[in-house]
Design a protein that fits this description.
Elements (H helix, E strand, L loop, with lengths): L4 H9 L4 E5 L3 H7 L6 E4 L3 H4 L11 H14 L4 E5 L8 H15 L3 E3 L7 H9 L4 E6 L5 H4 L8 H17 L3 E5 L3 H10 L4 E4 L7 E4 L1 H5 L16 H17 L14 H13 L2
Parallel strand pairs: 1-2, 1-8, 2-3, 3-4, 4-5, 5-6, 6-7, 7-8
Length: about 280
Amino acid sequence: MRLTVHGVLDRYRRGERLTMVTAYDYTAARIIDRTDIPLVLVGDSLGMVMQGRDSTLPVTLDDIEYHTRAVVRGAQRPLVVADLPFLTYSTPDDALRNAGRLMAQTGCGSVKLEGGLPFAPTVRRLTEAGIPVMGHLGFTPQSVHQIGMRVQGRSVEAGARLVRDAQALAEAGAWGMVLELVPAPLARLVTQRVDVPTIGIGAGPDCSGEVQVWHDVLGLYDDFVPRHTRRYATLADTAAEALSAYESDVRAREFPTAANSSTLDEETLAAIEAALDSTP
């Protein structure tokens, strides 16, 4: 049975830490479904890790819808959260239309949007329409050209604003929020000041839970390890070794073998040859 927002909040109120991981396709979702991870995010980070782009900005609603459908089909147990892409929630009406489309067409259990106090009316509009909303504060990738890719909330003014933003989102009805690249003490303060789960990434150990990108956790890149992640495998090396072994076997005519092939009796083969030879 699929976990709902209500079920996630029950875990939060029992004091359980919440684990979230991104997924972008059916295969990844099937693997996650074999674990106890309760939250899956179809993030607009797919623009970088799946499409090779340098930011999340080019990701479209069609992209998110496509990938979320695949993830929902593969992950039968966790709550699936889908990102609202850049400029798809500029007004409450836009947000309602686009979030409603994602919920209806993909089967996801929640949407996520970036931004604080200015987006509280949008969060309220969506939740009043029955659409669960997760917030996202701190470093917000869709604003990278405005705020830069760096830790957020280090000054008195910025830190206080981030706390107020978190409170505004919670009061507007957001069931939880991601805190990205936020100083650990500030993330702890936010967690203490709101009564909904905070899911950190680069925000220290005192959030209500943690989210990480699938590719980072599994070591699917061999050239970059973000400081805020921990590799639990180096699957890029494993995959490269396996592909090299495959290439070597094919070139050496060691694969495929008879064990990997289907058979055809000699009588049938002879009849096929005879039919070909008799064809004008």
